[in-house]
Amino acid sequence: MRKCLSYLSILFIGLYISSCKNEVEFPTLTTSELELLVPQQDSLVDLQNRSTVTFAWENSSVVSNYNLVFSTNSDLSDPVVVETSSNPYVIRSSEMNDLGKSLGLSSGSTKKIFWSVKSRKPSQPSTAEVRSITLKMLMAQPLSPAKDSVISLDYTALSRGIKFSWESMADINSYQLVLSANADLSNPLIDMSVSGTSAVLTQQQFQNIIENTTNGLKRYKGNTIYWNVKAGDKFMANSGWKFKLYGTKIFTDIRGNESITYKVAVIPTADGAGELVWMAENLRTRKLNNGDDLVYDATGQMSWNSQYFTPAEAMISSTTAVPDELRATAGMYYRVQMIGNNSSAVVWPNLLAPAKWRVPEVQDFVNLANAALTACDYLEVL
After folding, report:
1. Were both Cys, which of 9, 64, 303, 325 would link to 299 (CB 3.0–4.6 Å)?
2. Which of 28, 55, 58 is nearest to 133 (CA)?
């Protein structure tokens, strides 16, 4: 009897638990509204008279990634979508102009467009609100070189041209092409009048600009160059278009009446934060960097009076020549212990290295090896 009562107790408890479980109600997830803030409804956005456009909406603690949606239709069909994690989202006028073109607007036109913001995840807060703005496009804008392009000068083709082009403006036949190393286009590197909608500058012109030390540009590393076109007293784009400019990868070492041109390599550092600049050929000068001749005896390597000897004379021993594959890439061979007086002030690297260059140290080779490993994952050592 006691055993039966125990079974009945367990049965009632089980029914009670089961009954409680069935009575639990789970709330339905609801998506709250994100209120749009700026621009205000039906605002005029004149790209010709502003450098940026700001879009902002109410923040949500559970949303970090948004889709900013633009369309020429109030139902946001055929949209252009901008993914962003920024709120507010600030877009340059030139980029807003590109967005307008993606929506089918033409230069100089004015048209109503619609915008809204959505979470990238449907379960997160979004908004059903759609606002409109009246977008007035730029009258014209630069075309090429494209924004953020890279131009690397080629020392074998310095006469080759680089074309700058832009859209035409009604009743305007003469323009001013301006290039500068400054975003505000101050202290221009080039400021020239142009008839028509394009101009061609040679690679040699850009190389001369780089080599002009008063311009403060880097000889081998990348320089950010801004450019814009002025019609009358107003620039086409409200912010300068920019491109990265690299000079020719050569270096001419002039020592008195001797002039030798070497190839140069620019190698990104392993961490990507900088660049290493190395001569890509071995030194082959016959002079000190002050222009004085190095001592050379006609018997070359066989003479201990010679401070250097040529690859053709190089011998591993009295009967064994340096292999031909090394001769092909070798520069001069220098007896460094015979150059300078080896004092702390006058040592052979200070006398042989070209001006503003130095002989690499151990850490330089470590940095070079790390950069190579980053580029190709392994090294083959000869």
Report:
1. 303
2. 55
Range of the domain at 372: 257-376
What CATH number is given to the structural domain containing 177? 2.60.40
Q: Where are the alpha helices (DSSP H) in the chain?
A: 2-23, 93-102, 203-211, 324-329, 348-352, 362-376
Residues 345 and 308 in one domain: yes
239-to-52, 91, 106, 135, 290 alpha-carbon distances in Å: 9, 11, 19, 18, 47
Quick check: is 66 in a domain? yes
Contact (Cβ atoms closer than 8 angstroms) between residue 173 and residue 134:
no
| Measured distance CA(194)–CA(173) in Å, rounded | 9
Longest dimension (CA), the chain: 125
**Dihedral-angle region of residue 181 (phi above 0 means left; psi in -120 to 50 means alpha; beta otherwise):** alpha
Mean pLDDT for the stretch of residues 182-192: 96
Beta bridge partners of 245: 151, 223
| pLDDT (average), residues 141-146 | 93
Average pLDDT over all residues of the chain: 85
Q: What pLDDT shows up at residue 123?
A: 77
Instruction: Give the separation between CA 152 and CA 159, rounded to whole angstroms.
Output: 14
- In a shared domain, residues 200 and 310: no
Helix (H, G, I), strand (E, B) or coil at 295: coil
How confident is the model over 242-280, as pLDDT tens digits? 999 999 999 999 999 999 999 998 887 777 777 888 999
Q: Residue-wise over 15-42: b if at least 16 C-beta within 10 A, else e?
A: eeeeeeeeeeeeeeeeeeebebbebeee
**Predicted confidence band at 68 (pLDDT cuts at 50, 70, 90)?**
very high
Per the model's pLDDT, the better-predicted residue between 372 and 183 turns out to be 183
Q: Which of 225, 99, 200 is nearest to 150 (CA)?
A: 225
* Residues contacting residue 97 through CB under 8 Å, at least 6 positions apart: 47, 137, 138, 141, 237
Q: What is the CATH number of the domain that holds 49?
A: 2.60.40.10
Are residues 370 and 329 located together in one domain of the fold? yes
CA distances from 349 to 125, 147, 252, 341, 356 (A): 66, 43, 18, 12, 12
Structure tokens at 345: 């002030």
Please count the CA atoms within 13 angstroms of the CA of 240 that sit on its side-chain side: 19
Shared domain check, 335 and 273: yes
Looking at the fold, whether 266 and 236 belong to one and the same domain comes out as no
